[in-house]
Specification:
Length: 205
């Protein structure tokens, strides 16, 4: 297991009191023994719209022996959100009646944060390139049609809605039209307008 991940354990015996490991208290932002280790206490940290599903899953684990594994969002005692993976398995109770449930709660927030940062790093160059294309296209439309930036942006948005594509894709089409004239915005105005209009108004393929 990744050394940066914190894993806490819990046990819900068919008979006797529930138990939490010290690590589970830490995941929840508490010191060991701050409160009794009950299902309700754990549930209060889970996002409201996820509590019913988790409660039903733990009941099915104890009652029917179904294993459980899912990712949940919790808030620790200080109100900080964390992403945790909760898994549970059942085994016959040592008392001979019912099932004991053993579970683990792993704080995977560092992994989620790292993946999110990685995704941003991967997408940032593309996003910046798209922004540059949009800015260039806005300048072109403003010059060709004699409109301000807001009107030029609305033209791009309208075309994007008609085509069901992102605005940067339409901007790229506009700039491709300009490139057909050698990239010269001072070229014949009528020819430039025809190319740009075709790029904006052409139906989606």
């Amino acid at each position: 297991m990744d050394p940066h991940l914190v894993a806490g354990r819990f046990r819900l015996p068919a008979r006797g009191a529930p138990w939490w490991s010290d690590e589970l208290y830490h995941v929840l932002g508490m010191a060991p023994g701050d409160l009794p280790p009950t299902v309700d206490a754990l549930m209060r940290h889970v996002r409201v719209d996820e509590r019913e599903a988790l409660g039903a899953a733990l009941e099915a684990c104890a009652g029917e022996g179904r294993s459980y594994s899912h990712v949940h969002t919790i808030k620790d005692l200080e109100g900080q959100p964390r992403v945790v993976a909760i898994a549970a398995v059942a085994s016959p109770s040592s008392g001979g009646t019912g099932r004991d449930v053993d579970g683990v709660v792993v704080d995977v927030s560092p992994v989620v944060a790292a993946r999110a940062a990685g995704a941003v790093n991967e997408q940032l160059p593309q996003a910046l390139a798209g922004r540059a294309a949009v800015e260039q296209a806005l300048g072109c439309l403003s010059l060709v049609y004699g409109v301000d930036r807001s009107a030029a942006l609305e033209m791009l948005r309208w075309s994007a809605r008609q085509r069901e594509v992102p605005v940067p894709e339409v901007a790229a089409l506009v700039m491709a039209a300009v490139e057909r004239l050698g990239g010269d915005l001072g070229a014949d105005g009528e020819a430039l307008e025809e190319l740009v209009a075709a790029a904006i108004e052409a139906p989606r393929d």
